[in-house]
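Researcher: We plan to redesign the surface later, but first we want a full-length starting point. Tokens attached.
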């Protein structure tokens, strides 16, 4: 039987794009949560903390993506 040769696929550009895009998406989601909390006038801090968490995680993810791809 003949052996099948597999070629490695370079996934670095895809990982770079996904990491930076995901970071920005988390920041946008956090801002949307903060805006939703402001517009609806909900008096709990859960949405505020969740929005802040999404923003911080998004910023960290975006910076991590930029530093590890250069």
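Model: Full-length starting sequence:
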């Amino acid at each position: 039987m003949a052996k099948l040769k597999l070629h490695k696929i370079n996934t670095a550009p895809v990982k770079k794009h996904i990491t930076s895009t995901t970071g920005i998406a988390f920041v946008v989601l956090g801002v949307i949560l903060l805006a939703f909390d402001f517009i609806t006038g909900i008096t709990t801090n859960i949405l505020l903390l969740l929005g802040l968490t999404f923003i911080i995680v998004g910023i960290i993810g975006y910076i991590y993506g930029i530093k590890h791809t250069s």
